[in-house]
Amino acid sequence: EIVMTQSPATLSVSPGERATLSCRASQSVSSDLAWYQQKPGQAPRLLIYGASTRATGIPARFSGSGSGTEFTLSISSLQSEDFAVYYCQQYNNWPPTFGQGTKVEIK
Amino acid sequence: QLQLQESGPGLVKPSETLSLTCTVSGGSISSRSYYWGWIRQPPGKGLEWIGSISYSGSAYYNPSLKSRVTISVDTSKNQFSLNLSSVTAADTAVYYCDSYSSGWFIDYWGQGTLVTVSS
Predict the structure, then answer these.
(1) For B58-86, how does the pLDDT look when each residue is reduced to its tens digit (9 = 90+)?
(2) Confidence band, pLDDT 50/70/90 cuts, at residue B57
(3) Which of A72, A91, B105, B114 is 20 to 30 Å apart from A46, CA to CA?
(4) From chain A, which residues contact B within 8 Å (Cβ)?
């Protein structure tokens, strides 16, 4: 199975600043990459699919980029509601697999 | 807007079978537009895809769990179910039912239910 590796494990950012999260796949997944946001006690929420397409209702401050094995999720100006854990997921090969998550915390 | 709700026991004994049901509202489980499935998350850890099933009953399982997992659909009740046999403490997790349509990424999630495996 494809192993997804996210970095960093924890990212400390001040409100209003930009956050950049990375995700690497152990082999090419083309653009079959999704990002999710998860807050404590809640189910994950789809943010991005196709590496760069925002899901319905997702604010424009969230953007995704990359293809092949290297991907990035950027949050342009962090709002209080954006502090959460973020997961990447590949869906190019069965089984779909997730990264271990990046926690974005308040600096 | 689909809504999914898990139900089932919160405590299962080791070696027994974990059984969960997901009730779908806001849409038909017979719709050709959606696939239905299960994902789990051990406490404080990451996400693991368990398996998925189509409206027609074609099921796809994670190879790591395939020998123990069965996912089925009950169209009369607009529900689908998960059975995981021979459970151990390693199967303790929050279990999410889910749905997707245009690729193996999840559009809709249930709220999740914690299942603890313990005697």
Answers:
(1) 999 999 999 999 999 999 999 999 999 99
(2) confident
(3) B114
(4) 1, 32, 34, 36, 42-46, 49-50, 55, 87, 89, 91, 94-101
